[in-house]
Amino acid sequence: MLAILAVTAPIFLLIALGFVAVRRVWMPREGAVAMSRYALLFALPALLFDTLSKRSLDSILVPDFLLVYVSASMITYGIGVLVASIARRTSPLDNAFFGMGLSMSNSSYIGYPLVAQLLGDSALIAVVMAILTEVLIILPLTLILTEFHRERGRGSVLRTLGRVLRTVGTNPILLAIAAGLVFAALGWRLPAPIGRTIELLAGSAAVVALFAIGGSLAGQRVRGALGPATAIAAGKLVVHPLVAFGMLMLVPTLDPTLGQAALILAGLPMVTIFPLIAQRYDQGEIPATALVITTLLAFVTLNLGLWLWGIGVPG
To answer: Global pTM?
Structure first.
């Protein structure tokens, strides 16, 4: 457990530092927002592009991993929507954000540094495939269901799909992944000065992103609805990794290291933009509370899960 904590504790301490810095006004909240935008628009895209562009295409996309992670995320999404619909006695279309909260991990900000330190650079392709799952499947599905619920037959289906495609298609992380895949497929290399610039940007990603998470948490208001928020937290930290574990039992051919990466990624807190997207549809209160609760509890559940599954344990 001490060996695991030596890896995970610095990650959560950086998040805590960002939280305290904003709460104690050592840094203005706008500063944390600016850091988050820097990570999203520059550092993380550079990191993902740098990781992908230096690999061969056939080593990046692993069908067995995609089968495990996509299936686990979609099953967990369905569980979230179904349980919320029964509990709230509302349409499944009105509960898309419950599914998103259970199934969309913070693979970019937390998953990348955690997988890199626990499993090494060879496992980072798992992070990329998880991000593709989240950006190309979970996020669009949530937006489509929510848009259809809001329109309730009044709007054009094509117009709704167009809005979703614009949201997804302009995501800088997805664009960086696409560019990295093109470079990997064609064997291209950037000129040395540009490549070095990308590497410098990539090197700043982890620290800035983790600090920004803490700053964003400091800006979240924990209000009522603790019951639903706690249920989302439990689903994200317990149900998602358990479903992933079940899928791994059904796909024994997956490389063990990538299997461990799938468990790590499934056990992470949900993505930081979860309440921000929900807020656009007047559903931000429960997601904001769930994000804070999940991030706090993740330090316990993630370390316990790593210890139980023997991930990151020497020997």
So the answer is: 0.90
